[in-house]
Amino acid sequence: MKKVVIISTSLRAGSNSHMMAEQFAAGAQAAGHEVQLISLRGKEIKFCVGCLSCQRTGACVFKDDVPAIMDSVLNADVVCWATPIYYYEMSGQMKTLIDRMNAMYPKDYRFRDIYLLTTAAEDEEFTPKRAESGLQGWIDCYEKSVLKGHLFCGGVNDPRDIAGNDMLQAAFELGKNI
Q1: Is the pLDDT at 22 greater than 90, yes or no?
Q2: Per-residue pLDDT at 55
């Protein structure tokens, strides 16, 4: 049994990327894994100011929802990020959280396998590439981890457009087979 943490970064109700995250979670649960789905909707996540205090103390100077999220990520075997694609890049909330998790850098971590779920109105093969590249920059800082899978569903713009799409089943199967 693995501990799986899924971070859904969309703030929109009925988010297509969140629906993919839910299916990934359902698949992982069906396989018997311990699953925690964290939605950034309603979370307070302040911007990193680059003071680097976290590198000296192991904790950020800001008191918000990030330390609890970071603790979950540090203790997970598998981390899955779900994001809508905005202007061919990950959501701002996802990037802000990644920046704030800088306090993790000098710490020991369990996670090895990283997954990415992305959705966008655009349906071109290149659409999610910059989001994947941005996440890869984070992964590269954790040498024992690797991007194990990335699912992209294009052509979904409005809330819940993804309902009935085959990519929901693909997300379930990816979660089930981690």
Answers
A1: yes
A2: 87
Q: CA of 100: how far to CAs of 5, 11, 42, 58, 77, in Å?
A: 17, 18, 17, 12, 20
| 172 three-class SS | helix
Q: What is the mean pLDDT of residues 11-32?
A: 98
Place of tokens 């990415």: 116
Q: Give residue for tokens 């969140």.
A: 18
CATH number of the domain bearing residue 38 = 3.40.50.360
Rounded Cα distance between 159 and 139, Å, is: 29
56, pLDDT greater than 90? no
Could you give the CA distance from residue 133 to residue 100 in angstroms, rounded to a whole number? Answer: 18
What does the DSSP assignment read for 52-64?
-HHHHHSS-S--S
Range of the domain at 106: 3-176
User: Other C-beta atoms within 10 Å of 144: how many?
Assistant: 9
Whether the full predicted model's pTM is greater than 0.85, yes or no, is yes
How many structural domains does the chain have?
Answer: 1
